[in-house]
C-alpha cells in the first residue's frame, strides 16, 4: 500500500505541532533552569549550594534517561496532565520533559561563556542580581542562546520520530509504519528528504538570526 | 578618602590557603592620584577590589569617606557603589550594546529619567572625545577608545572615587599616555580621587602624586612619588625606579673609561627640585684642580618638579678629587661613588 500526499501533509503538520509546542514549553522550563544552574553555582551572583545541589542532579537524571523509555515511563503523569496517554498532544508532555533539561544545559553553557569581567563591572556599578541577569548576562549571551535553541529544536525533531510509540504520529511515525512495516521505500525516501530539509532550514534560520544579532 | 585599616584577605580553597593581603594600612587622601605598583600576584587587584567590596576583607576594615561598606545593607551598598567608579584592564564593555548604551547603563540601573540620561551621556562622550562614536559598538573601537568608553561609563553616576585596575596594561605606550592624560583631567576637572593599580613605573611617573609598592600581599614602601623616586628604600622599589630612570653607566662608556689610564673617580649626582638649577659642576671645575667629564645624564619631571641625575668622572689628584667631592656634598645633592666593576 502506498502513502498518500494527504498522509504526508498530515504527518508534517503533526511534527511541526509537536516540535513547536514542545519548544515553547521546553524553553519556559529550560531558560529559567539554565539561568538558575549558572547563578546559584559556587562563586556566582546568587550562590546557593542547596538549590544547585537539587537542580543539578535532577537535570542529570532526566538527561540520562533515553527518550523512548521516558516516553513510556511517565505515561501516568502524561495522563494526569493532558487527560490521555496516547496521541499527538500526549506526546508533547514527554517531549517537554526531554527537551527542557537538555535546553537548560545548553543555556547554562551559553551563559557561562560570558566573560567574568562583565559580571564584575555590573557588580561594581551596583546592579542587583536580577539586573545582572537581564541587563548583562542575557543580552551578552543572546547570540549563543539562539544557537542553543536551534540545536534544541533539531534535537526535538529527532525525538518526535519516536512519538509514534504512543500514537503521536508525525513524519518519523509515518516512515516506520508505512516505510518499514509495509515496505514502502518511497515513503522512507520522502520523509527523510522532508526531515533533512526541515533540519537544514532550521539550522540556517538559527545561524542567520545569530549573525544578525552579532551584527556580522 | 579611602582608608585601609589592618585589612587582610585570605583565600581558602580545598587544598590550600593564600594570604593575598596581610595587614594593609594605607590612606588615600581626597584628590590624590594614588598608584599601587607591584609584580604579578602581589595582591594589587585584591586590594583595589576591597574598596568597592567586590572582595570582602577577611579581617580589618576598609573605609570609604569614613564609611565601612561591609556594614551596609544590600541597598545602601548599591547606593554607595554609585560613588565609586571602576575601570578595568580589559574594559569589560557590553559587546551587545552601543557606546551610548554602555555609558548609559549605570544610569539606567538606577532608573534615571531618559532625558537626563541622554544629556549626561552626551556630556561624558564629549569629555572623553568620542561624541562621534555614540552609535558604534565596542567591537568597532580601538583599545584606547574602549578605555575611554570605560572611563565615561565609570563617571556616569558622578562618583568621587575612581578605581583603575591596570587601565593601560593592554595599550601601547602612546595610547597609554593619552589615557593617563584623560585620567588626570578626570582628577582635576571632576575632582575625582583616583586609586590606580599598575605594574609599570612609567604609568606611576606620568600621573601619580603618591605611590605604594606591594610585594607578597604587603605594602613594603609608600610615599610621595618624589620620595620613592629619589630615595627608594627597598630593592623592589629601586628596581621599579630603575626601570624608568636610568642611573647606570651605559656599557659603551665603560669601555672608553677602561681604556683611560688617568686617575679618576666616577660619581652619580642626583638633583631634585631647585638643586637642578645650580651650576654645581662649573663651580667644581673652577674651584678645584679637577677635570669634569660628564658621562651620562637624564632629567625627568615628577609632579612638576625637575628630577634627574648626572654621572660624572672627576679627573685629577686624589686629594683634589676628595675636596671636590666634599664641596658637592655640601650643595645638598645626593652623590654616590660609582664603583667601576670589571675595571
Ligand atoms: N578568588 C581567588 N581565589 C583564590 N586565590 C585568589 C583569588 N583571587 C586572587 N587570588 C590569589 O591572591 C594573590 C593575589 O592576587 P591578585 O590578583 O590580587 O594579584 P595582582 O597583584 O593583581 O596580580 P596581577 O598583576 O597578575 O593582576 C594571588 O596569589 C592569587 O592567586
Ligand atoms: Mg591584578
TrEMBL record, chain A:
Belongs to the binding-protein-dependent transport system permease family. CysTW subfamily. Residues 12-203 form the ABC transmembrane type-1 domain. Keywords: Cell membrane, Membrane, Transmembrane, Transmembrane helix, Transport. Its main location: membrane. This is D-methionine transport system permease protein. The chain crosses the membrane at residues 16-38, 50-74, 80-100, 145-166, 186-209. InterPro entries: AA_ABC_Transporter_Permease (IPR051322), MetI-like (IPR000515), MetI-like_sf (IPR035906). The lineage of its organism: Bacteria, Bacillati, Bacillota, Bacilli, Bacillales. Pfam families: BPD_transp_1. SUPFAM superfamilies: MetI-like. It comes from Thermaerobacillus caldiproteolyticus. One of its GO terms (cellular component) is plasma membrane.
From TrEMBL, chain B:
Residues 2-241 form the ABC transporter domain. InterPro entries: AAA+_ATPase (IPR003593), ABC_transporter-like_ATP-bd (IPR003439), ABC_transporter-like_CS (IPR017871), ACT-like_dom_sf (IPR045865), MetN_ABC (IPR041701), MetN_ABC_transporter-like (IPR050086), NIL_domain (IPR018449), P-loop_NTPase (IPR027417). It holds the Pfam family ABC_tran. Keywords: Amino-acid transport, ATP-binding, Cell membrane, Membrane, Nucleotide-binding, Translocase, Transport. GO terms for biological process: amino acid transport. SMART domains: AAA, NIL. Gene3D superfamilies: 3.30.70.260, P-loop containing nucleotide triphosphate hydrolases. GO terms for molecular function: ATP binding; ATP hydrolysis activity. PROSITE patterns: ABC_TRANSPORTER_1, ABC_TRANSPORTER_2. It comes from the Bacteria. This is D-methionine transport system ATP-binding protein. It comes from Thermaerobacillus caldiproteolyticus.
Amino acid at each position: 500500500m502506498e502513502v498518500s500526499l494527504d498522509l504526508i501533509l498530515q504527518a508534517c503538520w503533526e511534527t511541526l505541532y509537536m516540535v513547536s509546542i514542545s519548544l515553547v514549553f521546553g524553553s519556559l522550563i529550560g531558560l529559567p533552569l539554565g539561568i538558575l544552574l549558572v547563578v546559584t553555582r559556587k562563586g556566582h551572583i546568587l550562590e546557593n549550594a542547596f538549590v544547585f545541589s537539587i537542580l543539578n542532579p535532577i537535570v542529570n537524571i532526566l538527561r540520562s534517561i533515553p527518550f523512548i523509555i521516558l516516553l513510556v515511563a511517565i505515561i501516568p503523569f502524561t495522563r494526569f496532565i493532558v487527560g490521555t496517554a496516547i496521541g499527538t498532544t500526549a506526546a508533547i508532555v514527554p517531549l517537554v520533559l526531554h527537551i527542557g533539561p537538555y535546553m537548560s544545559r545548553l543555556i547554562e553553557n551559553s551563559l557561562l561563556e560570558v566573560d567574568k569581567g562583565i559580571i564584575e563591572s555590573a557588580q561594581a556599578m551596583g546592579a542587583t542580581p536580577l539586573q545582572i541577569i537581564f541587563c548583562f548576562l542575557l543580552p551578552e549571551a543572546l547570540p549563543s542562546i539562539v544557537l542553543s535553541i536551534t540545536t534544541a529544536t533539531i534535537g526535538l525533531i529527532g525525538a518526535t520520530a519516536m512519538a509514534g510509540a504512543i500514537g503521536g504520529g508525525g513524519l518519523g511515525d509515518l516512515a516506520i509504519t508505512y516505510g518499514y512495516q509495509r515496505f514502502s521505500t518511497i515513503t522512507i525516501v520522502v520523509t527523510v528528504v522532508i526531515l533533512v530539509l526541515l533540519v537544514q532550514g532550521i539550522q540556517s534560520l538559527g545561524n542567520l538570526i545569530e549573525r544578525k544579532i552579532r551584527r556580522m | 578618602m579611602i582608608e585601609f585599616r589592618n585589612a587582610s584577605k585570605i583565600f581558602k580553597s580545598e587544598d590550600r590557603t593564600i594570604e593575598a593581603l596581610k595587614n594593609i594600612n594605607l590612606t588615600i587622601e581626597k584628590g590624590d592620584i594614588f598608584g599601587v605598583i607591584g609584580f604579578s600576584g602581589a595582591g594589587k587587584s585584591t586590594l583595589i577590589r576591597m574598596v568597592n567590596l567586590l572582595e570582602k576583607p577577611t579581617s580589618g576594615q576598609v573605609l570609604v569617606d569614613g564609611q565601612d561598606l561591609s556594614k551596609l545593607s544590600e541597598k545602601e551598598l548599591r547606593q554607595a557603589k554609585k560613588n565609586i567608579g571602576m575601570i578595568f584592564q580589559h574594559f569589560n564593555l557590553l559587546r551587545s550594546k552601543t557606546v551610548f548604551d554602555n555609558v548609559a547603563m549605570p544610569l539606567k540601573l538606577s532608573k534615571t529619567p531618559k532625558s537626563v540620561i541622554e544629556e549626561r551621556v552626551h556630556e561624558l562622550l564629549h569629555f572623553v572625545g568620542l561624541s562621534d562614536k555614540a552609535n558604534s559598538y565596542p567591537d568597532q573601537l580601538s583599545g584606547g577608545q574602549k578605555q575611554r568608553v570605560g572611563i565615561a561609563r565609570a563617571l556616569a553616576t558622578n562618583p568621587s572615587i575612581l578605581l583603575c585596575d591596570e587601565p593601560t596594561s593592554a595599550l601601547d605606550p602612546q595610547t597609554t599616555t593619552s589615557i593617563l592624560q584623560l585620567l588626570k583631567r578626570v582628577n582635576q576637572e571632576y575632582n575625582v580621587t583616583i586609586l590606580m593599580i599598575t605594574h609599570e613605573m612609567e604609568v606611576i611617573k606620568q600621573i601619580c602624586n603618591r605611590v605604594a609598592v606591594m610585594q607578597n600581599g604587603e605594602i613594603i614602601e609608600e610615599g610621595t612619588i618624589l620620595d620613592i623616586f629619589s630615595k627608594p628604600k627597598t630593592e623592589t622599589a629601586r628596581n621599579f625606579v630603575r626601570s624608568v630612570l636610568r642611573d647606570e653607566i651605559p656599557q659603551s662608556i665603560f669601555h672608553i673609561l677602561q681604556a683611560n689610564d688617568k686617575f679618576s673617580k666616577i660619581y652619580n649626582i642626583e638633583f631634585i627640585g631647585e638643586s637642578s638649577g645650580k651650576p654645581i659642576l662649573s663651580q667644581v671645575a673652577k674651584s678645584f684642580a679637577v677635570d669634569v667629564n660628564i658621562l651620562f645624564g637624564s632629567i625627568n619631571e615628577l609632579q612638576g618638579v625637575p628630577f634627574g641625575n648626572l654621572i660624572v668622572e672627576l679627573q685629577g689628584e686624589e686629594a683634589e678629587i676628595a675636596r671636590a667631592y666634599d664641596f658637592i656634598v655640601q650643595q645638598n645633592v645626593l652623590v654616590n661613588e660609582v664603583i667601576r666593576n670589571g675595571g
